[in-house]
Amino acid sequence: MRKNFKLTPPSFSSSRRKLLKASSLLAAVPLLVPRCVLAAAGKSEASVQKFYNGDWIAAFKQAFAAADTVSVPADLVCDNINTAIFMPEGKTLHVAGGLKGNGKGRFVMQDGCQILGAKGGRFNNITLDVRGSGCTIKGIDMSGFVPVTQIYIGGKEKRTMRNLVIDQITVHDANYAILRQGFHNRMENVKITNGHFRHLQGDAIEWNVAINDHNLLISDHVIENIDCTNGKINWGIGIGLAGSTYDNEYPEDQAVKNFVVANITGSNCRQLIHVENGKHFIIRNIKARNINHTFSQKAGIDNATVAIYGCDNFVLDNIDMKDSAGFLIGYGVIKGKYLSIPQNFKLNDITLDNTQMPFKSRGIQISSGNATSFVAITNVTMKRATLELHNKPQHLFLRNVDVMQHADAGPALKLNFDLRKDVRGRFMAKEDTLLSLANVRAVNENGGRSVDIDRVDQVHVNASGLNFALPVATK
């Protein structure tokens, strides 16, 4: 997922407004004027139409210079937005009508800027470029295949930006919806909520190389019909987050971290949620339908509802999948080199029902390991799918697992602990290992036992409530 975009927006450096003029104006105000009047001084709103003289770009610049809030009325369409328009700090753009561009136009949001939509407020082929703290984007409709992304969060200036809110937006018939390039700067306290993303070529939300960011909430979104048909590699994911270079020590400064993805409804795409080199995160309350390989066929990405690569300390909770590829939790790999393996995670309340799926598809495939690590898999129900585990964490727990797979597709439960002759075996835990199984049932469509376990050599083995026998433990 880690992508090298050719998006090269200009390097903008924000300039704080001078306070001298404002101070001189306040000094001239009589001292007896009530404070509330002073607080309201300078607050104003103007329609951009009042400044139009054949050039909408000039009109917006003049309007922002004259008023704190600039409005686009419902019956107005501002077209030919083909270059950058800087919103001065603290300004608001209120859109009830439409704005159209050629893909080169953008509104550059500096500290305290807001872009707020009323019913019918829409942008077409214009990028919103977030370059400051305290910014809000809310209630707008965005579309257009010309720019790479509708909302761009990044820049090359080394700074910290805080308190970004993106809420109640609709993005459709576009490439990317939201793209964050996070290598150069830091975002803190970001909330991206209540969005509707549909008919996209690229990702709905891409948080790329975001190694500096802290406290990110992505929640309450509907994602549907993401299908990359333009031949772009690694395009076409619902929500994707990535750190930097894989490292099995999982250093904090290389990982995307401290985020929550929650309350997502997704359908009709190749991959719904994707995390590379992440740690300290939660993915919960996901409802997925029709996640399969027929979408984004040339994008070169795995087919999975949730794909996790080289991550540490995370939770997947309450994931409901139907007629969909399941999970891929696997190694961090670059150019064929296995650099890291997932560790310290929990899967809980997972359902996957592929009884009506017309394709043979991935169930839940997990690789995990490392000397001091744990994996807990609890309350899992899978129909016509395989639960497959590779390599060996130090402590592995399976509780309340019920898996059914058709016999012609292979076993319902596969435990492949023996990687002694495999290069990936270097990630195996060897000291004080524990395998604990309770209430685990693995059957074929006729109810017969359906398991494949190559070797059990854990130091401690606890098993109860199994419908199959474990191989005799070997040391």
TrEMBL record:
Keyword ATP-binding assigned to the entry: answer is no
Which UniProt keyword terms apply here? Signal
| Leader sequence segment | 1-39
- PROSITE patterns, alphabetically? TAT
Superkingdom of origin: Bacteria
The cross-references to InterPro entries, in alphabetical order and at most eight, read: Colanic_acid_synth_WcaM, Pectin_lyase_fold/virulence, TAT_signal
Q: Does the keyword Signal apply?
A: yes
Q: What is this protein called?
A: Colanic acid biosynthesis protein WcaM
Species of origin reads Buttiauxella gaviniae
